[in-house]
Amino acid sequence: MRVGLLFLAATQAFVGLWALPAPRSFYDDFPAPGHNWVSVLPPYNEHLVRDVGALSLALTVLLVAAAIWLDRRLVAITLVVFAVWTVPHVVFHSFHLHGFSALDATLQTVGFAVEVVVAGVLAVVLARSKEPAVHSSE
Asked: In this structure, what is the dihedral angle of CA atoms 98, 55, 8, 110, given to the nearest 10 degrees?
């Protein structure tokens, strides 16, 4: 459980720690130079990119807190919050792949799929656990 939550936190931290302080760089170069997944969906908007960065960092804090305490209610709320953010984001990007190379479209889709699968597995583990705290070995 803890490893999965920290993995999801790391994905959000990667976005947030780039987008918030360096929005133009994030827009032009995310996720790596030569693989510009954001700028293929213009226009650039500094405000929105910084907001995405801040929201990603807020979600990072929640995911890390859930990983530290492993309280059943906190983990459940965290996974719901993650789903509220991730599902619409994944759906949008799944229908807006024009402008992406075949490689980048595949990498983006696989990256999103990994996040969704990890979160789904964590939700199943949590649902099957009857204890007030979730064991870190799960």
From this structure: 0
